[in-house]
Amino acid sequence: MLAHTTVRTLSHTGDGVMAALRASGDEPPVTIPRDPARDAARRELSKGMYHENDPGWFQRALDTFWEWIDELFSRASTATPGGALGLVVVIAAVLAVLGALWWRLGTPRGGPASAPALFDGRPRSAADHRAAAQAHAAQGHWNQAVQERMRAVVRALEERALLDVRPGRTADEAATEAGLALPAHGSRLRAAARDFDDVTYGGRPGTEQVYRRLTELDHDLDRSKPHLAGSAPGSGGGGTETRRGAAG
Prior knowledge:
With 248 residues, this protein is mainly α. The termini are far apart. The longest helix is centred in the N-terminal third of the chain and has 23 residues, at 2-24. It has 10 helices and no strands.
């Protein structure tokens, strides 16, 4: 009797639930296959309302770049002994070597044709250039001191008629031409021209050491006797007077 009453109660309850579902208009859930569901989701998410706050193309490119940098450093740090710290040490060493090379060699420059003229438009004597060089050296202005001393060297050779007076001559040209008359000092003249070029337009700062080398060269050249083409060895100063007369 109890079992019969329970069955009737459950049956009545089930009929009530089904009736409620039919009254509310709900239908059983619909099962959609995976691929159509994925396509439908993509179409829905592609609508502009979902992308109003997305970053612009520049920000996306920047994020991609920094992700690439981070990945690059991560790979390099795993391949470098000592990890990230070892990578930093290697980079610092490379930068130090590049800085030393730049300091030693200066900024790369073109050939002599692109070099500036040795003298400006104001004609001055070798003594004037020497006085200016000494004044700059006394104040520690080594760039100007080096430039003026090199000009004094070349102007003194012009005054001795060992070089023709030629406007627009470069330091390299003056050194090459002077080396023909004073071959014993050819290498020092070329080194002096390089120092002048480095200081004047190569970006390399002048130093007291460079200035003193130029000063010694100036003094040595002033006491040197030229080697003239066609003159016999040991001919003395007569050749010098002949060259001066010819140049005058």
